[in-house]
Write a structure and sequence with these properties.
Structural class: alpha/beta
Number of strands: 11
Helix content: 40-55%
Radius of gyration: 18 Å
Number of helices: 8
CATH architecture of the largest domain: 3-Layer(aba) Sandwich
Distance between the termini: 25 Å
Shape: elongated
Order of helices and strands: EHEHEHEHEHEEEEHHHEE
Strand content: 15-25%
Number of domains: 2
Largest sheet: 5 strands, parallel
CATH superfamily of the largest domain: Response regulator
Length: 223
């Protein structure tokens, strides 16, 4: 999934970016609120992690801009402001969660999983299509009795497909969710990674799960 991170403490920004990238997220990181607003105008995000006190525009302004267009992107405020009134203000402004610094990276990742699970209507952190099972907690993937070994991008692509089971996803939509602004690869990157996934998920299986819809994109479904 693609995450927007806005945090003006450069070292903390880098640490969070690295931690989320290791989890398979695609992260666009910003050091001020205006940069985050510019990112919102140019891309769609599955979740946003926003500091409140930032130069040029604070977290409330970024959140307001995000909600202005009716976007329901889950937002977690990450801030040193820890009073009850601060928490109430943050949640009442439209944020989904509020995490006080200093914090545990494991807790941040768990809260992100909970927010995105709720957004996709999931009741657990396990995604299932036929006999393909993806555990979002452990990032283990199995097809029947086979455990699949996936790269970070392969895992991110498969998770995105499975969160949208039966939905035809265009190449552009997939690329915008899996790769961030820093990506400088080829134009056929989605086709290449779909091919990688097919070999690992469908080769040797009687039932194929990853389907091409000519002229429209890809989807994952049982039939």
């Amino acid at each position: 999934m693609r995450i927007l991170l806005a945090e003006d403490e450069q070292d903390l920004n880098l640490l969070i970016t690295r931690a989320l990238t290791r989890e398979g997220y695609s992260v666009d990181s910003c050091l001020d609120g205006q940069e985050a607003i510019d990112c919102i105008a140019a891309a769609e995000y599955d979740a946003a992690v926003l500091d409140i006190m930032m130069p040029r525009a604070d977290g409330y302004a970024v959140l307001k801009e995000l909600r202005k267009d009716g976007k329901d992107t889950p937002v977690i405020f990450l801030t040193a402001r820890d009073s009850i009134s601060d928490r109430v203000q943050g949640l009442d402004s439209g944020a989904n969660d509020y995490l006080v610094k200093p914090f545990s990276f494991d807790e941040l990742k768990a809260r992100l999983r909970a927010m995105t699970r709720s957004r996709f209507g999931m009741t657990s952190n396990t995604l299932t299509v036929a006999d393909l099972v993806l555990d979002c907690n452990t990032q283990k993937v199995k097809r029947g009795e086979r455990e699949l070994t996936l790269s970070a991008k392969e895992y991110a692509l498969l998770e995105y497909l499975m969160r949208n089971t039966g939905v035809i996803l265009s190449r552009e939509r997939i690329e915008n969710h899996i790769w961030n602004f820093d990506y400088e690869g080829g134009t056929n990157v989605v086709d290449v990674y779909i091919s990688y996934l097919r070999r690992k998920v469908d080769d040797g299986e009687q039932v194929k799960l990853i389907h091409t819809v000519r002229g429209r994109g890809y989807c994952i479904k049982e039939k």
